[in-house]
Amino acid sequence: MKILAILFLSILVLGFLFVQWANKPENVEALQKKRAMEAAQKIKDEKKQVAIQKEQVVVQKEIETKKASMKLAIDENFANSRFEQLDFRYSNISYFDVKKNELNFSGMVYKGQNPQAYFMISNDDFGDFTAEMQTGIWGGDSYAGIFWGAQPNGDKNPNQYQAAYASPNTLYVEAGDDEHFGLGGLISSENNQLLRVERFGKHVQISVNGRVLFNENVASAERGKVGIIIGHRGGIRPNIESISIGIKQFKVWQ
Fold it and tell me: What superkingdom does the record give (predicted)?
């Protein structure tokens, strides 16, 4: 009881001393200034947020206007069992086969095998564009997707580009900061995918099967080549892995 009484008295004393300190003219003035600054900052932040929202509305309207006037620039559907509008340089790679109106990428990946990415590149450069790719994909360490803003690098793969590509379980976005988004769980997956990329200036929106997963401004808005990126992550498993990708269609509007 004595201890409780001492604690109670201590709290009373401390409270009295705090009130005395807080009521000093200089402390009252400092508190008033602090509150005034906080109120002004709150108003400033609210105005900034309103301005950002208005700008987003304007940008979205501009994007919708541009989209409405876009025309189909690339329609790669492998109708003649070959590439018609993209540069394909891998006819000697056994993974690839173009037949029955579909690009196939299939085979085995062995333990210790190096990862490999393949690029099918447009002839023209693109600024603002919308692109879609219809894909069927099996094998967790294989992937397929769309790249853009690529700069020529001779006969080698471009070393400067942005991309959105997916495995059956994950969407990967390389557009400054690398990000990834789950498509399925340990058991579930999205083997059949419609990947869509919309790029207007620095704004990029990416969806898989109609679900928007990435909707941000990115670091670069450079013009460059667009196309299909496809590959595997190498032999990172202890056993042989079977991979299979079928691309039925690739379209680009600008």
Answer: Bacteria
- Domains of the chain by residue range: 1-66, 70-253
> For residue 251, with 0-12 CB atoms within 10 Å meaning exposed, 13-18 middle and 19 or more buried, which class applies?
middle
What CA–CA distance (Å, rounded) separates 221 from 239? 42
**pLDDT tops 70 at residue 124:** yes
pLDDT digits (tens, 9 = 90+) for 137-170: 998 889 999 999 999 888 889 989 999 999 999 9
Residue 152 carries which side chain, given as an amino acid letter? P
User: At what angle are helices 2-22 and 25-68 packed, to 10 degrees?
Assistant: 80
CA distance 205 to 83: 27
DSSP notation for 84-115? SSEE---TT-TTEEEETTEEEEEEEE-TTPPP
pLDDT surpasses 80 at 197: yes
CA distance 217 to 202: 5
Q: Phi and psi (nearest 5°) for 152?
A: -55, 145
- The CATH number of the structural domain formed by 70-253 is 2.60.120.560
| Residue whose C-alpha is closest to residue 230's, from 97, 127, 126, 129 | 97
Q: Is 161 helix (H, G, I), strand (E, B) or coil?
A: coil
Cα dihedral across residues 237, 88, 121, 80: positive or negative? negative
